[in-house]
Amino acid sequence: MARDLTRRERLRIPRQAMTERPPGARSVNFEEVNLGYTAAEAIAEAERCLLCARPTCMDGCPVGIDIREFVRLTAEARFSEAADVIKRDNFLPAICGRVCPQEDQCEGACVLTKKYTPVAIGHLERFVSDYDRDHPRDTATAAVAKTGKRVAIVGSGPAGLSCAADLVRAGHDVTVFEALHELGGVLVYGIPEFRLPKEIVRAEVEQLAELGVRFETNAVIGMTETIDELLDDAGFDAVFLGVGAGLPRFLGVPGENLIGVYSANEFLTRVNLMRAYAAGAETPLLDLYQKSVAVFGGGNTAMDAVRTARRLGAAPATILYRRTEAEMPARAEEVAHAKAEGIEFATLVAPIELIGNEDGWLIGVRLQRMELGEPDESGRRRPEPLPGDEFEAAIDVAVVAIGNAPNPLIRKTAPDIEHTKWGTVVADPETGRTGKVGVFAGGDIVTGGATVILAMGAGRRAAASIDDYLTTGVWQLESEAAVPSK
User: Fold this and answer.
1) What residues contact 68, with CB distance under 8 A and at least 6 apart?
2) pLDDT per residue over 345-378, tens digit each?
3) I need a surface site. Which of 8, 319, 339, 385 has the fewest CB within 10 A?
4) Which CATH number fits domain 7-134: 1.20.1250.20, 2.30.30.240, 3.90.950.20, 1.10.1060.10?
5) What is the DSSP letter of 178?
6) pTM of the model
């Protein structure tokens, strides 16, 4: 039974901290760091919500979850019903509750941020979704009338999965093509186990399979089949491109071909997907025990890489970043976790050369000290070199985590799909429609590297547009008159 609390009583409830594994214990294994709320903690946190008549938190949610309602139900200990509310708009809540930057989105828009701390919406989403998974129930829903339309989704990352969820619930026949041998895209190859256990991803993918979504792994669209072949030969009525941005960017300095230099993509994929740390692994990493590992970058991927290196025995494991900590795009929680685990931070430094020995092995890095100048297009102050202020540091392994670009495979095999000079697909941001009839795109392949929840929002918007196209048979871009479908 929910308590009837006044506004003042709600404001007096402190934000509930989430229990974590102790830093010394967690930094030597890959077990999940955050342990989640108890039911009592979740209820107490949900009771902090003021149940605003106009919930501004929803404005900050890229997928439009009815946050007020799911939090209200949580406060009443109606956890399964709260999960149902979330799943109306987000079919991957256990994932989002763990890795989405709520502080910049829903929680950042909470009215309590003005004088208090915001409601821990992400922690509550995680609790409710975990509760729902741990308490199976009959969730049979009314059968959806089949439309007879078929949609191919290329990529099983967050954009593709969210698009698939909405389309299958609209009655369309959906097949997801994944290039790798395991489903989840960046959720499985890019995010470490200690932040997002793979069993969570598998469980949420399995829910989509139960709804009727078909999955094909080891299917590299552009090689096994082209987009034209999906549309013309395989009989699909529409194609959604959600292939992400998995091509690593490098530093562009001498020495990047030395032994011991990894891209963050390769480093994390070997560990997360191929278990390179295990004895007898087919794709091993260099032994990092007591080795000096430097990770270049300041985003979440850099934090994932350096914390992974620490767990593999690196000492020291260091972040090297060309701006200050205040400009780091990584989540504050990830930075705090890294520091607690013994990660060292060196800021206002930029690599100008990776140094090797006569056998081609990395042994050091030459660094340039930086200072902050005027803001650049990102709004952050631009790092500028301090002339003549250079120095060398000994390192054994380097991981480059400075961003990604789209894989050029789609561009090479579908030349009639327009791309930007950065290699991203040109698509309407609201509908996902490309310049090719029947082809939609969303997520990192359109925006470049962004967050899981933003990719999911793009997938949902594209799904609505695909459904409209399949229902009406009309293809229209803002800049052109409507044309009939094929």
Assistant:
1) 49, 51, 52, 55, 57, 58
2) 999 999 999 999 999 999 999 999 999 999 888 7
3) 8
4) 1.10.1060.10
5) -
6) 0.91
